[in-house]
Design a protein that fits this description.
The chain has 418 residues and is α/β, with parallel strands linked by helices. The chain folds into 2 domains: 14-273, 3-Layer(aba) Sandwich (Aspartate Aminotransferase, domain 2); 274-403, Aspartate Aminotransferase, domain 1. It is built from 14 helices and 16 strands. The chain has helices at 14-18, 20-33, 40-53, 64-75, 92-99, 118-127, 162-171, 230-240, 261-270, 274-291, 322-331, 361-367, 381-407, 410-417, and strands at residues 57-61, 82-85, 103-106, 129-132, 137-140, 146-150, 175-179, 187-190, 195-198, 205-209, 223-227, 244-246, 249-250, 308-309, 315-318, 370-373. α10 runs parallel beside α13. The longest helix has 27 residues, at 381-407. The chain starts with 13 loop residues before the first helix and ends with a helix.
Length: 418
């Protein structure tokens, strides 16, 4: 049990100690059967996770990046295609697109939810593309590349506004692959479907990550693709296993992207507990909101759309003096993170795409202000009060300092400068 002296950003020790006997039992089963890769343990997890997501099929793979890359390739994304996503996400989203041979094109985010802005998507499709009568698809006006698909990212645990995204995709014949790596168990009230839909059940396919820090995390790398399309499921199965349906008979060139049986067994043990863990995250988020209720003039709290049920993979606030606040919290023995400090269009890795500062102003503004506070099911109320107290104290100190600075006469400033 981690004490209250230092509040970690994430506690990966306590839940595994609580499940120690069950997880050790999984390890023993793997040892006894020597079924280390694939096999019944993986198949059982695939069936259970598909049911959890409300999808027909699930294919376990080696990581969330594998999941998105293989889903894109299996969906028909080809070298030279364009796939639209957001600049405010982990680089794996864009890596999966470029590693599938496509070019990531970015659309700015909604400033409230930090997810893909459907209005920006519509503007991109209507003003930066043209209809190609030969192929029946869209071409980007600048690059003359075909626009093939959209990867909406369900960031921080809240699903993107999927109905208008899917409407636009249907209108322009684009495939949609959900990046659900941060959203296991999140839900969206779909007017198109007439019911609540889980992350992983709305696009042609979806990619999940089970990196240890996720709401449902393995004890190492792991991922999964969910889909309602049997053909896509079969192609992902081949792609993850060197392009073979049966051993040594390779129908396509594939990858080594299989899920370890041990990780599948660990995920199976944790999956029944995920709804309760997600409920605890929602309760912690509500407590944060209450603690910060009097500070909304200086703190932008997470905004959850009325038709969305977030699982709060992260609790992200925005403040003007983010870096100073983070330093103050570190001095108070409170760990934080920044998700993400530099938008993808400004990363050196994607300098070849030709984007510049100012191209996506909302993402750039958000990146300079976001700060992720500790949130995990084991976080205690007294720890939250301490975190909130330190945040408020730091902001109040800064506010007082700003008032004093404004009250100093110009002559005094010149005197200090001299």
């Amino acid at each position: 049990m981690i004490g209250d002296g230092r509040i970690p950003f994430l506690d990966l020790v306590t839940p595994h100690l609580e499940l120690e006997e069950e997880l050790v039992s999984v390890f023993r089963d793997v040892l006894k059967t020597a079924g280390f890769v694939g096999g019944p343990m993986v198949e059982e997890f695939e069936a259970e996770f598909a049911q959890f997501c409300g999808a027909e099929y699930c294919v376990g793979v080696g990581s969330g990046t594998d999941a998105l890359r293989l889903a894109l390739i299996a969906a028909g994304v080809r070298p030279g295609d364009i796939v639209i996503t957001v600049p405010n996400t982990f680089i794996a989203t864009a890596e999966a697109i470029s590693q599938a041979g496509a070019r990531p094109d970015f659309v700015d985010i909604d400033e409230h939810t930090y997810n893909l802005d459907p209005r920006g998507l519509r503007e991109y499709l209507e003003t930066q593309c043209r209809f190609d009568s030969t192929t029946g698809g869209l071409l980007n006006l600048k690059t003359e590349r075909p626009v093939r698909g959209i990867v909406p990212v369900h960031l921080y645990g809240q699903m993107a506004d999927m109905d208008p995204i899917l409407d636009l995709a249907a209108r322009y014949n684009l495939l949609v692959i959900e990046d659900a790596c941060q959203a296991q168990g999140a839900a969206y009230d779909s007017q198109r479907a007439g019911r609540w839909m889980k992350a992983g059940s709305m696009g042609l396919a979806a990619a999940f990550s089970f990196y240890p820090g996720k709401n449902l995390g393995a004890c190492g790398e792991a991922g999964a693709v969910t889909t309602n399309d049997q053909g896509l499921r079969d192609r992902v199965r081949m792609l993850r296993d060197h392009g073979q349906r049966r051993k040594y008979y390779h129908e396509i060139e594939g990858y080594n992207g299989r899920l370890d049986a041990l990780q599948a067994g660990i995920l199976r043990a944790k999956l029944p507990r995920l709804p309760k863990w997600n409920q605890k995250r929602r309760a912690i988020a509500r407590r944060y909101n209450e603690l910060f209720r009097s500070q909304t003039d200086t703190i932008v709290l997470p905004c959850i759309s009325p038709g969305s049920k977030s699982v709060y993979h992260l609790y992200v606030i925005r403040v003007k003096n983010r870096d100073q606040l983070r330093e103050s919290l570190e001095q108070a023995n409170i760990a934080t993170q920044i998700h993400y400090p530099t938008p993808l269009h400004l990363q050196r890795a994607y300098s070849n795409l030709g984007y510049q500062a100012g191209d996506f102003p909302v993402a750039e503004k958000v990146a300079a202000e976001v700060l992720s506070l500790p949130i995990y099911p084991q976080l205690k109320a007294r720890q939250q009060k301490r975190i909130a107290g330190e945040v408020v104290a730091s902001l109040e100190t800064r506010r007082a300092s700003d008032r004093t600075a404004r009250e100093v006469p110009c002559a005094a400033w010149e005197e200090h400068a001299a």
